[in-house]
Write a structure and sequence with these properties.
Elements: E1 2-5, H1 23-30, E2 34-37, H2 39-42, E3 52-56, E4 64-68, H3 75-91, E5 96-99, E6 110-112, E7 120-122, H4 126-133, E8 137-140, H5 144-151
Parallel strand pairs: 1-2, 1-5, 5-8
Antiparallel strand pairs: 3-4, 6-7
Length: 152
């Protein structure tokens, strides 16, 4: 079984209330091969919601926080959403996920720098981190070839 970012299958759950439909991914859900998830909604956040980015506290370089553009700390929601996503993955015997790149939950290679400047840095979203620590492979919609190679 596969997890797919819900926005990629046409569910309007992104921060701005829109989706990012990739028709071929929606077909995987329709065939029963994939489960759509939105870690941010699973963590209790509304749609639409303020844009969020991962930041690192200056006094503790390892502590990641997720903040909204207006400065609200929503780390709890992102961690809860990541944990709930992992529970779904474990219940459904998920072997891999295809997630939305650049998301503070789902990014697998790149995330925004935490300063709301539109600049990307290497990094992973919180849901991706927890899935990878549990041995689940996570791919980006920007690297569909690697994803299809993996699921063959």
């Amino acid at each position: 079984m596969i997890l797919i970012s819900a926005c990629l299958v046409g569910i309007d759950c992104r921060y701005n209330g829109e989706g990012n439909l990739v028709p071929e991914l929606k077909k995987l859900v329709e065939k029963g091969m994939a489960i759509p998830v939105c870690p941010e909604q699973l963590g209790g956040l509304t749609t639409p919601r303020e844009p969020c980015e991962i930041t690192v506290e200056a006094d503790n370089q390892k502590e990641q926080k997720v903040i909204t553009q207006d400065g609200q700390d929503v780390t709890f929601n992102f961690k809860k959403g990541a944990e709930e996503t992992l529970k779904i993955a474990q219940m459904a015997d998920v072997t891999c996920a295809l997630f939305k790149e650049r998301s503070p939950s789902c990014g697998s290679n790149k995330i925004y720098n935490g300063k709301f400047e539109g600049k990307l840095i290497p990094g992973q979203g919180l849901a991706t981190q927890i899935l990878k620590k549990s041995g689940i492979s996570v791919f980006s919609e920007e690297d569909m070839n690697a994803f299809y190679e993996y699921i063959r």
